[in-house]
Amino acid sequence: MKGNVIVGQSGGPTAVINSSLAGVYKTALERDFNKVYGMRYGIQGFIDEQYVDLSDYIKNELDLELLKRTPSAFLGTCRYKLPGIHEDKAIYERIFALLDKLDIEVFIYIGGNDSMDTIRKLSDYALLTGAKQKFVGCPKTIDNDLAITDHTPGFGSAAKYIATSTKEVICDALGFSYKKKNVNIIEIMGRNAGWLTGAAALSEGEDCQGPDLIYLPERPFDIDKFVNKVENLLKEKDVVVAVVSEGIRTAEGKYVCEFTSGSESVDAFGHIQMTGTAAYLADVVKQRLGCKTRAVELSTLQRSAAHLASKIDVDEAFAVGGATVKAADEGSTGVMVVIDRVSDDPYQSTTGVYDVHRIANDEKVVPSEWINEEGDYVTEEFLDYVRPLIQGHYNPMMVTGLPRHLSINQKDYHGLGWSRHIQKS
């Protein structure tokens, strides 16, 4: 008889992170694993013996479908850096004692770069000690910066939300343009990789001019040149919309957000708090040019807008979750599931596995040739890459006019007791 599966979620959530969780759960049962446990708040919570039996929460296919449409991390997440094997052996001994206690055969971690580092360390310890468990990483990050995989689950939905919101901000700005000069600066997530920021260019179409300027962190950012470009654009038009990554840096390597207060705090991995880039630039433009400015920071909306999730993204996240179980069941460990693009038109993809040691702590950035020569926009090649990933829509299950989500803290909502209230729209 097979043992059990345990799955955790780590790092910043996405609109489809729970679709991967649903894929893990369904595939584990289909492959006759006994139980599927969920770590509460990732590996950090698991060390404190915080876990749940997912069958207590997923009672039927309806619950599974709700889980696929639920934003945030259903199990709770963490940003916890597991120490090296030789730095704190006691932590590893505790983790593996708990895995043995729960008869865990497969350990799956849904996350980004730092989470793959956890998979790497745990699989190395298992190899060193002869432990029976298999360790497989399930990719997740809106930043799309994981190496090897063509793209990451979560990116497509965030890109769809960003392109939609950019389009709406542009429409709003144009509505106030009569005899007024105004500059709108939109700040997008992405510390060192500009995949999300570039997605704002998808807003351009027959009904929308798109943003005027787009700045990715892959190129040095010159504040004076930026203000000059805005000034020249204002001579030709009343409304200027610029989109900037939160991680843009000067040629000296200083993040623009570091010119503001609030960037002093860091997380467990030493990452500074990214906020205030658009606000700072809006203030600079206002002071130098004397025009009306507005800073728009989409912030966590980029990763939590499940109501606007891409169908391609939801389906791929589910497939990737299932593929992690399949990989472990067939003997793989110390690997991450990757997405391989088969074709663009029609769009098709498949999954594979790759050595996590080649992925953890690496970072995939936007290719230089996908950014224009001026460094203030993306090329058509970039758009050709992203456009297939935002296609389709997953309709929310509506209850009294609002999307219904599955909550780990509200068991009473399970099953047929409330399903008659659902409006599929």
Tell me what the structure shows:
The protein is of the alpha/beta class. The chain folds into two domains: 211 residues, Rossmann fold (3-Layer(aba) Sandwich); 150 residues, Phosphofructokinase domain (Rossmann fold, 3-Layer(aba) Sandwich). It is 34% helix and 18% strand. It is built from 13 helices and 14 strands. The strands form three sheets. The chain has a seven-stranded mixed beta sheet, with helices on both faces. The chain has a four-stranded parallel beta sheet with strand order 7-8-6-9, with helices on both faces. A three-stranded antiparallel beta sheet has the order 13-12-14, with no helix packed on it. Helix 1 packs across helix 11. The C terminus is likely disordered.
Helix/strand-derived category reads: alpha/beta
Number of strands: 14
What count of structural domains? 2
Mean pLDDT: 93
SSE pattern, N- to C-terminal: EHEHEHHEHEHEHEHEHEHHEEHEEHE
Strand order of the largest sheet: 3-2-1-4-5-10-11
Q: List low-pLDDT spans.
A: 411-425
Overall CATH class of the largest domain = Alpha Beta
- CATH architectural designation of the largest domain: 3-Layer(aba) Sandwich
Predict the CATH topology of the largest domain. Rossmann fold
Distance between the termini: 42 Å
Instruction: Supply Rg.
Output: 22 Å
Query: Overall 3D geometry?
Result: elongated
Q: Which terms summarize this structure?
A:
425 residues, alpha/beta, Rossmann fold, seven-stranded mixed beta sheet, four-stranded parallel beta sheet, 34% helix, elongated, disordered C terminus
